[in-house]
Amino acid sequence: EYEGDRNPEGERHGFGKARLPNGDTYEGEYEHGLRSGRGTYRFKSGALYTGSYLQNKKHGKGIFFYPDGSKYAGDWVDDQRQGHGEYTYANGDTYTGEWFNHKRHGRGTYVYKDTGSKYVGGWVNGIQEGPAELIHLNHTFKGRFFNGKPLGRGKYVFDFGCEQHGEYIQVEQEKEGEEEEEEEEEASLPVEPKWKASEITTLTPWTPQDEKPPSPTGEEKMPS
């Protein structure tokens, strides 16, 4: 069903309202029979998109409200979240930053609502990767992430004025012997990188490219 403007060729053109065969509805601008310009699309599932269209696809600035209560407000390209945008998740977490091909990709900030912790750094295909800071209530980790986990050199900066330098190392769990079944079960467990501390220093500048920790600033003397 369609109610609205048409061009001399009889195509939907201008402003109109339509009900699609699947129960979805659209109200907004058309060009030559296709949704183009500003419009609001209501999905039968309860989802809703309001924003720009180009030839039937979400393209430009727009807000998408998902059925689970989450929301994306930002740039779209060819029906995909792409460019810059903010996603508010159903649990209250938020991500603000760059998107590519519908995924978090580039630089962005993810805020965990429950703890107030914040990840500020790189993303690759939706996963935390690259130089980053993980900011907690009274301390911050600065280092690099790989595949969603910290890996390699980094440091913890504590609000009371000191830093602990070290590195996250991937601990390989290898088992030899007859217990093949157990080995298979253990292999399926995710291996968490382990923090190996090397030294404590006063506060020092940090850039994402820093691979070497600064040299110690003199030895602390224990009170006698």
From TrEMBL:
The protein's matches in InterPro entries, at most eight in alphabetical order, are given as: MORN
Acidic residues bias: start-end ranges: 175-187
Q: Which UniProt keywords apply?
A: Cell projection, Cilium, Cytoplasm, Cytoskeleton, Flagellum, Meiosis, Repeat
Locations of Basic and acidic residues compositional bias? 1-14, 209-224
Database matches in Gene3D superfamilies? Histone H3 K4-specific methyltransferase SET7/9 N-terminal domain
Localized where? Cytoplasm, Cytoskeleton, Flagellum axoneme
- Xref: SMART domains: MORN
Keyword set includes Repeat: yes
Write out the GO cellular component annotations: motile cilium; nucleus
Role played = Functions as part of axonemal radial spoke complexes that play an important part in the motility of sperm and cilia.
Name of the protein in its database record = Radial spoke head 1 homolog
Record the organism.
Answer: Scytalopus superciliaris
